[in-house]
Structure formats: C-alpha cells, structure tokens
Amino acid sequence: MIEKIKIQLRINDKDVSEIAFPELTLADFLHEKIGLRGTKVSCGIGVCKACTVAARRPGQSSFERIQACVMPVVALNGCDILTVEGLASSQSLSLQQQSFLKHFSFQCGYCAPGFLMGVTLLIDQLKRKPIKRENLDKLIEENIGEHICRCTGYAKYYQAIHAIIAETPGLVV
Length: 173
Hints:
Order of helices and strands: EEHEEEHHHH
Largest sheet: 5 strands, mixed
Number of strands: 5
Distance between the termini: 56 Å
Structural class: alpha+beta
CATH topology of the largest domain: Ubiquitin-like (UB roll)
Number of domains: 2
Number of helices: 5
CATH architecture of the largest domain: Roll
Helix content: 25-40%
C-alpha cells in the first residue's frame, strides 16, 4: 500500500498543508485538494505549457517555470507556488491580464493561464537582469515560443507581451 505524504506549500501567499499520495501531480493537487482550477491540463505530458506555474524553492530568490501536469507535488514540498489565480489583487487585474485583454490575445482562453504565467516568469527574469532592446524578441521567443494555442496566430500574445515590457520601467536597457 502506498502511503500518503504530508505536503506543505505556500500557494499564492497562503500556507497550505495537505496529505497526498506521492504520485499526485501539482495540477491535480491544485484542482482537487486546493480548489484552484485556473491551471489547465491539456497535453498531460508537459509539452503544451498550458499548465505552467511558478515555483520558488526554499532559499532561492527567483521563481522557476514548472509544468504542473507532470510535476509530482511531493517534489515541491516546502516551495512557494504562484498560479494564475495569484496574479490579480482583489481590486484589479495584473498588468499581464490587462494587456492580454486590451490586445484581445486569446480566443477560447484555455491556454491563457499558461501564457500569463510564462509572461510573469519572463518579467521576473527581466527585473533581475534587464536586456538590450534588440535582444527582446529572441528572449520572448525563448520564454513563450513553446506555449501552444490552437485558436490564435500568436501575434496578439506577442503584441501584449511587448506592451507589458514597454510599460514596465527597467526591463530593457
């Protein structure tokens, strides 16, 4: 018989302590145990990036990209997790969410949480290490290019991302 394990995380600035089977993925943990359903599962093998969340390991200052559909939640025990639900405040949408809406970036919206988290991680990276403007397109492609959307041509996502970066001082030099 497989024993359950105590999981302690900080999800969207809230401490969470739950008991879970070791093979439970982070996506299933978020959906079934915590009730956060914004993180989407599409391919189930970590390729499409719809399930992207951010995780900060103990002792680290920056977040890393995690594909929640394939990551066992036990591998993240003790981590800070940021999901799409953690981007907005109770008063307003995040800059990323506002820009995606303004630019009509998505159609069905299923992939939008993964794109939003990818952009959030990109902005976090640029805040720590700004880049030259001429390298921006390449960096966006490296960070967002693997996200799969079956409804759009990606152009509006890229327009929204450029707008976010242009509106945020200090990200490019």
